[in-house]
Amino acid sequence: MGKRRSSRELAVRFLYLCEMNTGEWREQLDQYWERNPCQPDICSFTENLLEQIFDNKKEIDQLIEKFSDNFTLSRMGIIDRNILRLAVSEILYFKQAPPAVVINEAVEIAKRYGSDESPGFINAVLDKIRAELKDGPVPSPQSP
Hints:
The chain is mostly helical. The protein is 72% helix and 0% strand. The protein contains 7 helices and no strands. Helix 1 (3-20) crosses helix 3 (40-55), helix 4 (57-66) crosses helix 5 and helix 5 packs parallel to helix 7.
């Protein structure tokens, strides 16, 4: 498994953990690293991903809901919701990997951690976001 995939999987697992526990995410991250040691470059990329997700969570969540055909975040499985958050964050705020690569990675992670329906659902939502990005910046979720 590549370093980026490892980082993405660590991020999804951490996001899941955060939804199951209370407390500030940075404090939980320190404990997470104690239980899940990794190479410095993998930890660093994971932390960068998580920081963008938590710093922009409201915007990310609104985009996910906008492009998920009235399927609210609360109705989504925890794993699906967090794989989508990760991928949307990477598409919007990280330019190292093309959106198609990010989507493929999200689908592969969904195959490993999600339900049987997760890969198709995640692919559909992310593909809609990618298509919208091709036509220009993603409009704010409040725009018509």
